[in-house]
Amino acid sequence: MMGAAKLFGRMVALSLVVGMAAPVLADDPRDPTMTPEAIARDAATIRRMNRDQLDYVRQRDAGYAQGWRDYDSARGRRDVEDEGYAADRRDYDTARADYAEERRRYEREMREWREDVSACRAGYYEHCAR
């Protein structure tokens, strides 16, 4: 009894695999068996599908555009915020320049200190006071 169920299951699985593996044949306009009416029907169907897709894309894009307009109007103070951003950006740029200068100064002082330490260890005691 159990063997029959397994065999049936395998047969169903095999038929599904074979059915899915078979290529799906679409209407081919170069197929000699296609009639001019079938070719015209295919062309009309393709045109309809393209128009439907174009309508969908236009509606979608119009919705996106409306969403962005709503977003901008909800922000309200956009110009004030943009000015604040510009001021923040200037402050940031100034702080970066200040940091770079401080970093160069620190590296120069560390290099001089290391030279003094080396000189002090080498017996030039006037460099030890630093």
How would you sum up this structure, described in words?
The protein has 130 residues and is mainly alpha-helical. The chain contains 3 helices and no strands. It has helices spanning 2-21, 36-75, 78-121. The relative contact order is 0.03.
Tell me the span between the first and last alpha carbons.
98 Å
Order of helices and strands: HHH
Work out the strand percent: under 5%
Number of strands: 0
Shape: elongated
**Which value, in Å, is the CA radius of gyration?**
39 Å
Provide the structure class: mainly alpha
Query: Given the structure, what is the number of helices?
Result: 3
Throw out a few tags for this protein.
single chain; 130 residues; mainly alpha; 0% strand; elongated
Brief summary of the model shown:
By secondary structure, the chain is mostly helical. The protein contains three helices and no strands.
